[in-house]
Amino acid sequence: MHSSDGSHAIAWQEGFGRLGSAFLTHLQPTPLPNAQWVARTPEVASLAGLPDGFLHTDAALQAFTGNTVLPGSQPYASVYSGHQFGVWAGQLGDGRAIHLGETAAGWELQLKGAGRTPYSRGGDGRAVLRSSIREFLCSEAMHALGIPTTRALCLTASDAPVYREEAETAAVVTRTAPSFVRFGHFEHFAARDMQHELRQLADYVIDRYYPACRNGWQSASANTDNAYAALLYEVGQRTAQMVAHWQAVGFCHGVMNTDNMSILGLTIDYGPFQFLDAFDPSHICNHSDHQGRYAFNKQPQIAYWNLFCLGQALLPLIEDEDITVQALEAYRPTFSYAFRRLMCHKLGLPSATDSHEAAATAVIGQLLEILATNRVDHTIFWRRLSLSAQDHDYERARELFLDTAAFDRWLLTYQELSAQSGQAPDANLMRNTNPAFVLRNHVGELAIRAAQAGDFSMVQSLHQVLSQPFADHPAHSAWADFPPDWASSIAISCSS
Prior knowledge:
This protein has helices at residues 42-47, 58-63, 129-144, 183-191, 195-209, 227-249, 299-318, 321-329, 331-346, 357-373, 378-391, 395-398, 404-421, 427-431, 441-452, 457-466, and strands spanning 12-13, 24-26, 36-40, 76-78, 81-84, 87-91, 97-103, 108-112, 127-128, 151-163, 167-177, 217-218, 223-224, 251-252, 274-275. By secondary structure, it is of the alpha+beta class. Strand 7 (97-103) and strand 8 (108-112) form a beta hairpin.
């Protein structure tokens, strides 16, 4: 599609922006000097319905750096509230995110780092190159792993200074999703007893993203025609699936505040995240998390806690505490089932719904215990186990353990379970479930250092490799190897 002057034009449609001034503030991005491309994702451009070739134009570079406003776009920042580290934080909002609007293909475009908004709370509204590279790469890595996530359209850089712990340079990530509505949007209006706006928001989300909720919610324990209870239930189901994926792949989000929880069950707001190196269930990846609230093994329970906050916010609409609790409680069995199913796939076993469910659960639990005791590298172990199943030789997995006798005992139970199911572990399933490549902190750090020196080639190569994480990529095998000693000194905080 092209406009009359021959330039590319994007087709927009009404989305969240139509809700009005109680929900958002219209504003303009703040320009940055000397914009340059760092990386782009043509697949996402196509998904979002952008015109062919637009992502390779100077017009796109300027628009996605915040230097110009695309024709038809009406930029805005939205207001929300939330609980941060378990404490009510009051009003928050898009402090450094500016929405460009929703494309006709149904994807919202959002600039992260394009300047101050009314919700910046004293901040500069900017993002630094370091954290922007991490978000860009991880968004796309998570998608390629099959994990629900926002997507990253492109990343641009500027030499404008941004001050965090030290002077850094600015960058803007253009991220996209069907919606960026968060649990905190609902908390905001509930806390202010703005029930008209609360209902308006809930109706918008239901009609736009969960239309089946208008038929109510039926389960073994509940039968109601309440659309708002159905919404809570569906959000809980999606959240359970998302967190099960996190736990299976070893992903630590790092800052699961209610304002960082997507109403669509998407992984959102990549800040102090980390993929586990050594398997440590109590690992804390966020150096700002002094109490360990968001430790890896606490993520499933924190997600439930956040859903409870959403349930409280929706209660004035649901008007029935019992139904609200039943909708919330459905999260737990869904998470357990989803996690067990994913772990069985990692082991190349039939789904855990069969008659061997208890035995499969025991095998998984035993394995996680010896992985933690031996501090085995999470990604490398699962990849080697996949190759071991393929070769019928488990030595390459066994040698990762200091306590080889413990591994041998586990291997015996694993093989017995396989025999009971009547089939060998499915090596192809394992190879397509257990990635060779994840975005390890130290690899990301190397790409960041090169980019800060003006070389974006490693960012672009990593982008390509992480988009095919189950392939071997022999030219980049070092990125799938054990982390170096210095990797443990990388500190990731909320300011990252």
